[in-house]
Structure formats: structure tokens, C-alpha cells
Amino acid sequence: MSKKKETAKVISQEMLAGNIYSMWIETDIAKEARPGQFISVYTKSEARLLPRPISICETGCINRPDGKITDDHGTADSRNALRIVYRIAGEGTREFSAYKAGDSVDILGPLGNGFPLPEKKDGSDAILIGGGIGIPPMLELAKALRCNKTIVAGYRDADLFLDKELGKYGKLVIATDDGSAGTKGTVIDAIRQQGVTGTVIYACGPTPMLRGIKAYAQEMGIEAYISMEERMACGVGACLGCVCKTTETDDHSKVKNARICKDGPVFLASTIDL
Amino acid sequence: MDTTENKQNMSVNIAGVTFKNPVMEGSGTFGSGMEYSEFVDLNRLGAVVSKGVANVPWPGNPTPRVCEVYGGMLNAIGLQNPGIDTFMERDLEFLKKYDTRVIVNVCGKTVEDYLDVVERLSDKTDVVDMLEINVSCPNVKEGAIAFGQKADALYKITEQIKSRAKQPVIMKLSPNVTDITEMARAAEAAGADALSLINTITAMKIDIHKRTFALANKTGGLSGPAIKPVAVRMVYQTAGAVKIPIIGMGGIANAEDALEFIMAGASAVAVGAMNFHDPYTTVKVIDGISDYMKRYNVADINDLIGCVR
Fold first, then answer.
1. Residue among B91, B95, B2, B100 at smallest CA distance from B45
2. How do residues A21-41 score in pLDDT, each as one tens digit?
3. Do A131 and A206 form a contact (C-beta atoms < 8 A)?
4. Vertex B12, ends B101 and B250: CA angle to 5°?
5. Pairs of residues, one from chain A and one from chain B, whose beta carbons lie less than 8 Å apart
6. Whole-angstrom Cα distance, residue B113 to residue B97?
7. Which of A201, B8, B94, B239 has the greatest CB tally within 10 Å of its CB?
8. Chain B touched by A76 (CB under 8 Å)
9. If residue B146 lies in a helix (H) or strand (E), which one and from where to where?
């Protein structure tokens, strides 16, 4: 039984931008977690019974005794800390944002498939694209990918988050809806205007953005791996709440409906009917 | 195992089928057990109840299909299922490996659809112990609930299914009726071996920020702790109206909830939406019932069934 629901301990909590919070959690789920996977986070109230699916932003190791978290991806077994960066979207996430160091938090994971990583360093030029609250999983991916990377991050406005951390792992290109930072417009506008090129795309963000990325990848003749989002219930593939339309009939559903929580959240864009 | 536990009887009998304990999960919340077997030892459950299966694959409804409400959730999955062929090859083969009872939930748009599935399962008596007939899903436009909201329609479909079924038949009743005992009596008169209740309650949530419905289907079925008192009341009323056994469900979160249903007259109970809140809910309910029996010196769970009248 590789997955489990457990009560973990909050290591730290901070606000990164308006309504955007970062929480480090001490958990062995970090050992198995791959970029692009997510965890289910449960509120303390049975009145809010569904878990909140939140993508894994990064993993790390807690150093004893000073408690500082470092990331050392050479030794996966020592990883015991996991970071989520999330937006307050309702009462559940508001509850999470009030958790302090030492508090407990119920989580389940790691869930989903995650981004496919090349076995070895290859000659590819990866474009990592995150939009809004789809930006956080790009951090762990940027850390794990051993190739040339351009990271394109789309924000509403100049209230940026994770930008400095992302910039450590590749060339950072910023797009904002209002033009108050980086290129004004969408992530695709930024890619075109800044002359970003690549041989493969990894993306997470709102559906209209993913639709644009699918079209762009098709135009460029390159592969795009996109992380899909949908309202979820069970988070483990049982309830069929969070499906997306696929171009071909799949083995599980037999009706061109892939389960985002179990068969995804990451799909090859060309296999999704967007 | 200590001696008191050895003396404790948690097994129940429903229409000639013996269950090791009275706890199963509600159809649609557990798939065919495959996903939850990563958390729960399926051998511990009284039964695994499959998600509804039709004669052909069904695509289900558009998304969003689920949303949370206070104390519960709405769903309008629309009975997406891979069809009986895949179900028999994959899901039944998987369930065969476990020492638990298997109840297959059957759905359809027409009477013929239901009969098709029932007949396909008729030579699977080695794996499939009972059939649960879904005539109460509020989220599909044709069939399903149309058979469950009119007593004469329910009588007819029950009678036809009974004439073909090789396994005992459970009719799953809808709470979206004026008088559930009228439906229960119709099913019993047509030969149903057992009843399960309640299915979800038709409901709606509006997303005030987007000024639209939270679910693409506009309405969905309400489940979770919010509906438990309604479900307990309906089980109690139905138990007073029919002689056939009842499987009770609706918002069961713990052993105390399950015991309410049992005392109201349910011979077994099913855990539904709360599997999503805690994948271990079913086994916690089983352990909690056992603890209750020890605490109150109840030797046989059957002594609690319908003990509150």
C-alpha cells in the first residue's frame, strides 16, 4: 500500500503574495513524490468533507537540529518535507492558511501520475509553463529536469510569487494580464514576444491557457505535457467526478473520459479534447 | 482474539446470503474496490457494492460533476461506466480474489437494458452474490429514476428483473418521492428480496461568483452527513411497512451513525460519501460497532436490528 492518509506536521507557513500561501509539511510522502503529482489535503471539519487537491511545489530534507530545509535530490530516501503553494479559494483553503508550525494537517498522497522525466540528460530544450496557481508544480519539475530550461510564468499582475526561486533553475520569462511585470498578455504572448523556443513543453494552469498551449505545440510540431484541473471528490480514481475528454477511448472508461486524479493530472496535450 | 470477541456475532443474513458483518460501501463511491484496496483490506468488508453498470459503456455527464456543500456534497456523475463486458472481464475478475460478498449495482435506460445486464450476470453466481437495481439515480435523463418514482413502474420492473435474475435482488429506492413506504411495498409485492435506501436527494448549488450552477448538470444528488437524519427516518418508516430486509445508507460517517440505521431497522449499512473524507471509514465503522457491542454486552448484532420501534 504505497498511498496512505496520514496526519502530518506543519513545519512553516508564509504568505507569498495576495491570497497565495506556502506551507512546508513534514511527511514521508516526500520520498515518493514526483514532479506534477498532488496531495489531498483534508480540513478539520467533517462539514467540509471533500479533500482539497493541491499540487506538490517541491520536496526537501529537514536538517536536524537547526530545522532548516534543504533540497538534495541525490538522496530521495532522506526527503521528509513537502511544500505546497496554494491560493485561498474558499473556507477550506482559508483554514489551511491559518495553520502554524507544529499544527497537524491530514493529507493523502502522492496522487496522480506526474510529469514524465527523461531517463538521462538529453539534448532537449524544455519550456516549463505555469499559469497562476499552476506555477508551483513547475518548481519541483525545474529542479528535477536535467536539460536546458526556460520557465514561463503567467500572473495576474506584479504581485509575483516563486519567481526568484524558479529563476535559479532556468531562464525566467514573466507574463502578466495587466502588463505590470514582464510581457503584457498570456504566456503564449510572452513566448512569442521573447523568442522562447524549445523541443518540449510542460505546463500547468487554467484550461484556456492549456488550450492555447496545445494549439501552440501543434503549430510548432512539439510535444506538450499538460496538467489538467477539475473539481475532484475522492482523489484516487474511484468516483469518476474529475474526468476530461480524451481523443481516444481509454482502457479504463471505454468512453473517452480519462480520470484526472488517477490517469492524470498530466496528459500529452494531443490526447486531450480541449 | 480474546474470548469475548469470539462470542460476538456480527454476521447478518439478507435474503439467504450471509455477510460476515453488516458494513458495505455505497454504490458509486468505491468503484469496484480496486482504488480503495490500496487503503482498505477488502476482505474485512461485509460486501463490496460495485458502481452502477449498464449493458453498454455510458459516458456520463459533463463536468463539473461534483461540488461540496455544508455537511455533504452534490454529484451528477451520470452513471459513467465501462459497460458489462469490461466489468465482467476486469472488475469481477478482480473481486473474485477477495473473501467478501459482491453486490453488483445495475443501471439502465430501458427495462431491456436492465434485463440484459441481469442475464449476463446470471451465470456468475460464483462471484456475484446479489444484484442491486438502481431505479433511483437522479442524474440521468432517461430510465433509472423514472422507474423508482412511480409505484406501478417500480412494481413492473421489479417483477421482470425477478423473473430473470439468478441472484437475490435488492431494489435501491429514491428518497425523492412523497411516500417511500409506497415504493417499498410495491417492490416487495413484486418479489424484491431486499431494499436499499436512500439514494441521493436531488439538490442544487449556485456559484454566486460565476453566477451559474456549480454542476454542469444544474442539479445533483446530495449525499453526506447532511442527509443522515432523513435517511434514518426513511429506513425506520420502511422497516415498519415491509417484511423484506433493508440495507440502510445516507451520510454514515462512523459506527454511531451506522448503529442508528441498524436500530431503525436496517440489516446492513453502506458507507458512501464519507469514503472521500476518510478512505478508512468502512473499517472504522466495523471496529466501532464491535466496540459498541462489547461495551453494552450485545452478543449478536441481530439483536440490534430494528430494536427501536
1. B100
2. 999 999 999 999 999 999 999
3. yes
4. 75
5. 117
6. 28
7. B239
8. no
9. helix B145-148
Query: How deeply is A53 buried, as exposed, middle or buried, from its count of CB atoms within 10 A (0-12, 13-18, 19+)?
Result: buried
Q: Which residues of B touch A47 (CB under 8 A)?
A: 70-71, 225
Residue B88, chain A, CB below 8 Å: the answer is no
Gap between the Cα atoms of A186 and A212, Å rounded:
9
pTM above 0.80, yes or no: yes
Contacts of A152 (CB under 8 A, 6+ apart): A127, A128, A129, A130, A173, A174, A175, A187, A190, A191, A196
CA–CA dist B126, B84 (Å, integer):
17
pLDDT, tens digit (0-9, with 9 covering 90-100), for B283-292? 999 999 999 9
Q: pLDDT of B5-38, one tens digit each?
A: 568 999 999 999 999 999 999 999 999 999 999 9
CATH homologous superfamily for the domain A4-111: Translation factors (2.40.30.10)
Q: Considering only CA atoms, which of B171, B99, B91, B217 is closest in space to residue A238?
A: B91
**C-alpha grid cell, residue B115:** 434485463
CATH of A125-271, one of 3.30.540.10, 3.40.50.740, 3.40.50.80, 3.10.20.600: 3.40.50.80
User: Which residue of A241, A252, A253 is in closest CB contact with B66?
Assistant: A241
Residue A75 has pLDDT above 80, yes or no: no
Gap from A2 CA to chain B (nearest CA, Å): 7
Please state the domain extents for chain B: 3-303
The closest alpha carbon to A59, from A43, A88, A79, belongs to A79
Residues A25, B31: Cα–Cα separation, whole Å: 30
Measured in degrees and rounded to the nearest 5, phi and psi for residue B75 equal -135, 145
DSSP string, A30-50: HHH--TT-EEEEE-S-TTS-S
A230 reaches B (C-beta below 8 A):
yes
CA distance A222 to B223: 44
What CATH class has B3-303? Answer: alpha beta
Domain ranges across chain A: 4-111, 125-271
Would you say the C-alpha torsion A158, A160, A164, A168 has a positive or negative sign? negative
- Grid cell, residue A215, equals 494549439
**Rounded Cα–Cα distance for residues A52 and A14 (Å):** 19
